[in-house]
Amino acid sequence: MRFMLVLTYDEAAAAAKTPDPAIFEEMGRFNQAMVDAGVLLAGEGLAPSAQGAIVAYGDAEGGAAEEPTVTDGPFTEIKELIGGFWILRVDSLADAVSWARRAPFRDGERVQIRRVLDPEDFEGVAPDEVMEAESEMRSRIEQQSGS
């Protein structure tokens, strides 16, 4: 099974203090441990929200809109922002939780763990032609990435 670990944090609070240089070494050891265990498929940190945008579909009350709206960062109205992610291949949610517990955080960060859905999760729900198109698309992506 694949799980995504999503790091969230308070961007304003983090910006108010200088990061401890040791955290970079600790994060390197944490990531290396996942590589050595053969569970890390991907992982990246994300730039501050000032370098991003939000595309919203519909209005704040959940109503429809003709066109999506785009709001440039920073996202001051959002308390917890995504700061990075990892994608792991492990046997269970418990294994993903075990890895998340080892992350070197100590300043109020949170790691949300979500199972990544596989095409098999949609069998019997999505039409066959959609499932076939999904399979073809995934094959093309594999070829393009050299995996």
From TrEMBL:
Transmembrane segments: none annotated. SUPFAM superfamilies: Dimeric alpha+beta barrel (SSF54909). Residues 124-147 are annotated as: Disordered. Residues 1-117 form the YCII-related domain. InterPro entries: Dimeric_a/b-barrel (IPR011008), YCII (IPR005545). It holds the Pfam family YCII. Belongs to the YciI family. This is YciI family protein. It comes from Actinomycetospora aurantiaca.
